[in-house]
Amino acid sequence: MSPSASWLVVNERSGSNSEAALRELEASLARHGLGVTRTIEFPAQELPTRSDLEAAGVSQLIVFTGDGTLNAVIDAVSGWAGAVLVLPGGTMNLLSGRLHGEDTPCDAILERIARGAFRPVRPAMAACAAGRAHAGLLVGPGTAWAGVREAMRDFDVAGLAQGAGEALAETTGGSRVRMADPAIGDQNGYPLIELTPSHRGLQVDGFLLENAAEFLQQSFAVLRRRFREGPHERLGLLDCLTIENCAAEPLQLLIDGEPASLGPRAEFSVAECPVDLLATAHGY
Fold first, then answer.
1. Are 39 and 65 in contact (CB under 8 A)?
2. 113, 18, 106: which is closest to 60 by C-alpha?
């Protein structure tokens, strides 16, 4: 891999994109002979597209962002013949964990890349009409807590107070969602259903909020994007499923942390990533 053939995408709003972290990343790239010729600072600059990379002769795109921006990057370069190197530049870094091992730091990943200890892969995603999730997809009124997380990120105290109140009302009083096909789990519905893609299919988990303690536990889990810390039950490991809103209202989603919506009944399935990603974990 020639250093002249690599671009870097960063996002200052992502969890790990401090100035110090970016300086450390640049030093690590140089130390391992993986320098880049251009850095795209999203969202101030537009994400590169497949045609941009092809026109510039880029063969490797290094992405140091959170899962949401990473999702947008992969969509933008869909069908490109090069490879994307995912680095842990966000808060949760779920896709980076899948590719390189959980909590593997940037320098260790770059060291593996420099000595050729990697392979291109196209990991499974959770797909629906609203988009593809590479790290995880959430369905239900509990997704309202994502707005509170954004207020926390922006240190918006007024927005945090208002958003928390609205999220509380939506999660406890909003129409729940259930598994319609196959009709498994609680048919009275859940405030949140999580779909986690893997090479074995979609892991489906339903989150129940039956008392105040569980509600608070789950709310904080959603805020920190550690959904599995909340009380939940495993519903299945499936290649295709249908989720519906119990009150026939639109489905609210978070696709890799970004909000979206669908009609009251929607199908979710496994799909292949549309571009090569570089994996360095032995357990991938």
1. no
2. 113
Going from N- to C-terminal start, the domains of the chain cover: 3-117, 133-272
Helix (H) or strand (E) holding 121, with range, is strand 119-121
Q: Which two tokens stand for residue 78?
A: 């869909």
Q: Give the residue among 152, 44, 175 at the shortest CA–CA distance from 91.
A: 152
Do the domains spanning 3-117 and 133-272 agree at the CATH topology level?
Answer: no
Homologous superfamily of the 3-117 domain (CATH): Probable inorganic polyphosphate/atp-NAD kinase; domain 1 (3.40.50.10330)
Q: Are strands 251-255 and 137-139 parallel, antiparallel or unpaired?
A: antiparallel
Q: Over the stretch 14-36, which tens digit does the pLDDT of each residue have?
A: 767 788 899 999 999 999 999 89
Q: How far apart are the first and last CA of the chain?
A: 22
What is the Cα Rg of the chain in Å? 19
Q: What is the pLDDT of residues 158-203, one digit of tens each?
A: 443 444 445 555 556 678 999 999 999 999 999 889 999 988 899 9
Q: Which residue has the tokens 């069908």?
A: 79
CATH topology (fold) of 133-272: Tumour Suppressor Smad4 (2.60.200)
Closest Cα to residue 250, out of 263, 259, 260? 263
